Amino acid sequence: MRRVVRQSKFRHVFGQAVKNDQCYDDIRVSRVTWDSSFCAVNPRFVAIIIEASGGGAFLVLPLHKTGRIDKSYPTVCGHTGPVLDIDWCPHNDQVIASGSEDCTVMVWQIPENGLTLSLTEPVVILEGHSKRVGIVAWHPTARNVLLSAGCDNAIIIWNVGTGEALINMDDMHADMIYNVSWNRNGSLICTASKDKKVRVIDPRKQEIVAEKEKAHEGARPMRAIFLADGNVFTTGFSRMSERQLALWNPKNMQEPIALHEMDTSNGVLLPFYDPDTSVIYLCGKGDSSIRYFEITDESPYVHYLNTFSSKEPQRGMGYMPKRGLDVNKCEIARFFKLHERKCEPIIMTVPRKSDLFQDDLYPDTAGPEAALEAEEWFEGKNADPILISLKHGYIPGKNRDLKVVKKNILDSKPAADKKCDLMGAPKKTTDPARVQSEAKLDEILKEIKSIKDTICNQDERISKLEQQMAKIAA
């Protein structure tokens, strides 16, 4: 007898939004027109891109700091243009990268217990893009390797430990890059672009390994991500503006393994993938639902599981890494849904009667330890993620501080050297003119810092006065 219903342990996954007092309230989520997720989460912090006058800023909140967030709560506000994308380092829960309209990428070290003062000084500024930087993505297994992609259609891969751009791919994309995804061991990347092509690229050889023209025929933005088995999953639009999802084998991109039409909404579908369970969650920008699918080896390969629906549309979405979940409650995913004025966690659970650890739901997952150093990866080595067991829950360890050691201070722009001056290479000569110009630079940098601090303080003062006025008016 043929089975009528496909067996799957994820068929009954259900989503539930947390109670109001466990949300993060009164947050002015960014209104910038950019199709990134606006939110990044790890087992310690949730980071949210917010509206900011005179530059770009994002909030970093410890996970337990729920409830109403005061207007004067400190922010990370070093960019001079709106922040477009943020990404937590997978190997250090206190390090986050941000890309901005000001054409720079900044890497920040967040204090262990969160911010007490606004942060204006990044650990390092990475300058190399000529237009706004809309995508930042850390390497999954190599320490301090960061990818950025900008509207100059260039992809740059940085060694954050030295502040250098070691790979610059500026001639592979003729049009805007919508997204970039690393594969499981970080040896390849896949990209979706406005020219309707999906490309699989070997970044160290700087060559295109596979590409598919018109992966989705519609004009609206696509997304492409790598799956654990090396296949590529894409979301996009048909010529009739129907939303589609597709599965591709990079060894043969002529025809998709699977192609499904979904609906006619116009929000870009952001895919979030769990390599341990092979479940993909699709969150449409402007939708009020999260659909989830299981990827398997048997036809039709992409199996619809269920939909979590709510009333409010989502402005963005954060996705918690597996090690941040509560294994005692059989939680297999946690999303942080951005509304216009708040962030609402949504918990996905597999119902189980037993209170014991469910090892079929929690195979060993990628831990916070890097498998390679940056130099090893740039030399050509590959390594899979170092896995950890979640049997007794994940206990965050002590993170080491991000140290940036410049090769030679004078080779790069002075603004990027503020933090690195102490650790830079020894000076070769003591030319008085050079010493004088360095002293002048120091003076200018100090002045810039004091002006930035003043601006942050004035912002806080203004919001306090506004609150006082509101109280009086009420």
Automatic annotation (TrEMBL):
InterPro entries: Coronin, DUF1899, WD40/YVTN_repeat-like_dom_sf, WD40_repeat_CS, WD40_repeat_dom_sf, WD40_rpt
WD repeat extents: 76-118, 126-168, 170-211
Pfam families: DUF1899, WD40, WD40_4
GO cellular component, one term: flotillin complex
Domain DUF1899: residue ranges: 3-67
Key words of the record: Coiled coil, Repeat, WD repeat
Keyword ATP-binding: no
GO biological process: actin filament organization; corpus callosum development; endosomal transport; endosome fission; endosome membrane tubulation; establishment of protein localization; macrophage chemotaxis; membrane fission
Keyword Coiled coil: yes
A Gene Ontology molecular function term of the record: actin filament binding
Family label: Belongs to the WD repeat coronin family.
Name assigned to this protein: Coronin
